[in-house]
């Protein structure tokens, strides 16, 4: 009886053990003019895309945790620079339209379903925080979009629906800083 009780205490102790929090590091992302905290070193990809404004470079930094103890599947930052002569950053309707298009493009690109949107700011710059249902409830993509001068930044985190709104998402988003 005592042996069973001790065994139960050991099992409960082991199963309630929390893995230590991963150490996050600040990364100054090459060419991005920004820095972020991430739980691991991101990889960089670039792709040329044709748009109505001409050919532009889409740059993406991603980190995918290798183990299952992380709160999320992927952390990412993408940016694209628009030609300055095609921008009207002083026009409220133009900025709104640009952010609307970025939101709609994100939903379309992942074949997702729009869940929510909040109007946000970074310094004096307009932004959005959006949530997208990914693969019919398999995951949630949360993204922040900021239009800063002629650059559109997209920060994104993919997680399980039950793990939505976790502290790592907030930590990642809140660590974003431009280096201007």
CATH topology: Protein Transport Mog1p, Chain A
CATH C-level name: Alpha Beta
The residue-averaged pLDDT reads 84
The portion of residues assigned to helices is 10-25%
Number of strands: 10
Query: What structural class is derived from the secondary structure elements?
Result: alpha+beta
Largest sheet: 7 strands, antiparallel
User: How far apart lie the N and C ends?
Assistant: 67 Å
* Poorly predicted regions: 1-21
Q: Tell me what the CATH architecture is.
A: 3-Layer(aba) Sandwich
Beta strand %: 35-45%
How many structural domains are formed by the residues?
1
Count of DSSP helices?
A: 3
What Rg, in angstroms, do the CA atoms define? 20 Å
Shape: globular
Order of helices and strands: HEEEEEHEEEEHE
Order of strands, main sheet, comes to 3-4-5-9-8-7-6
What does this structure look like?
This protein starts with a helix and ends with a strand. The radius of gyration is 20 Å and the shape is globular. The chain has helices at 2-15, 92-109, 167-174, and strands at 25-29, 34-38, 43-51, 54-63, 74-81, 113-122, 125-134, 139-148, 151-159, 177-178. Strand 7 and strand 8 (139-148) form a beta hairpin. The chain has a single domain (24-178), classed as 3-Layer(aba) Sandwich (Protein Transport Mog1p, Chain A), CATH 3.40.1000. By secondary structure, it is an alpha+beta fold. The strands form 2 sheets. A 7-stranded antiparallel β-sheet has the order 3-4-5-9-8-7-6, sandwiched between helices. It has a 3-stranded antiparallel β-sheet with strand order 1-2-10. The model is unreliable at 1-21 (pLDDT under 50).
